Amino acid sequence: xxxxxxxxxxxxxxxxxxxxxxxxxxxxxxxxxxxxxxxxxxxxxxxxxxxxxxxxxxxxxxxxxxxxxxxxxxxxxxxxxxxxxxxxxxxxxxxxxxxxxxxxxxxxxxxxxxxxxxxxxxxxxxxxxxxxxxxxxxxxxxxxxxxxxxxxxxxxxxxxxxxxxxxxxxxxxxxxxxxxxxxxxxxxxxxxxxxxxxxxxxxxxxxxxxxxxxxxxxxxxxxxxxxxxxxxxxxxxxxxxxxxxxxxxxxxxxxxxxxxxxxxxxxxxxxxxxxxxxxxxxxxxxxxxxxxxxxxxxxxxxxxxxxxxxxxxxxxxxxxxxxxxxxxxxxxxxxxxxxxxxxxxxxxxxxxxxxxxxxxxxxxxxxxxxxxxxxxxxxxxxxxxxxxxxxxxxxxxxxxxxxxxxxxxxxxxxxxxxxxxxxxxxxxxxxxxxxxxxxxxxxxxxxxxxxxxxxxxxxxxxxxxxxxxxxxxxxxxxxxxxxxxxxxxxxxxxxxxxxxxxxxxxxxxxxxxx
Length: 514
What we know:
It is a single chain. The chain is mostly helical. Helices cover 86% and strands 0% of the residues. The protein has a domain at 1-218. Residues 510-514 have low confidence and may be disordered.
């Protein structure tokens, strides 16, 4: 299978999984709230957030697995693959034990920190322990998912997740409908998590017959190799958490929890845009490692050019709608009181994220090249600047100041730092890169921008149905413009061929494949 075909298969799978999960969550959440009640539902979400931080014990090791599995699998070096996977499994054995112990400690202090009732406290403690054990087993068996992603079978992970989501949704309705509560719900998640892990293990053993995990057999060299890569990834992840998830804390401390709501409404919309693009670009890490192992540097340049351009093509229509109609959308969605202030936050963050998502390809390529210390340094500097600027500007402009404090360093790294560093690591003509990856998508979006402005000024939507109808009516204009102005003829031939391959209905209608 060609690199392009792998990419499209994985991209469609990732997006399908994300959309499916959002739909399930949309319909299931109200049912869970009604059955659990506000108190227990709130406790459940607090526990999920708290135990989610235990995932930092992963320490970037899985990214090491993905990178090295892609590298060794590309050259059929099963011996090295087994050594790296076995060493990672041993590391996860220790971190999983630490995760379980920490979860027991959290369970002990939880009622005192959050001041829950005596009736709720024992339930919360049990749920924390069970959820912590679920995270622990997820850590140790994530080795297998790292292998699956390393051989670029994202579609397999998506299938596992979709099946698990369906079963968990059905069991959630069954358990809560029969009067069971949080403890049963958390136990179900533990069992389903373990079942998913076992399926991942089964798939790896079937797909790579020579895969063999031996605990504690290999020497310091392999642990050093993992940590030399994963430590930089870990530092990058810490920076990302500060950049993307510290704003609400700053606002909550300096202005109060009520103001957080207005900020989160605007910020959450840009988060969805980030996730959509990231579902595509995350696949470039193993792809780049594979190409590097095969010494196909020219194809890495193609990945950079195409990935950056596709990221912008995806983000531009979403960003334009946010910039031109965002305030109205928030007013229709959440209520008129949120539109003006949350809309300003949305505008500021959209401008920053529009250009930063274009550099997600750069970041994932650098990880694939084992040059992600660059990403870690950029994220670290950005995180410090973000915190300092947000703390200063909140005193002058409130939550909009926090958005500006986030946007300034975010734009600086996206527009100056990453293009500079990627040009040093990948053979690319900067002028051609800017013209092909940036200018053509931006120019192709101008007609869509003009129409959005006209509709917002002359034919504003009065409800959500009307809003979405207007946006959908304009999308063909954007797609046609991008197809002919931004995507070159030879690229169109590739995309058409892959589309026919992965959309069987087109083959049945046409009777041929170009």
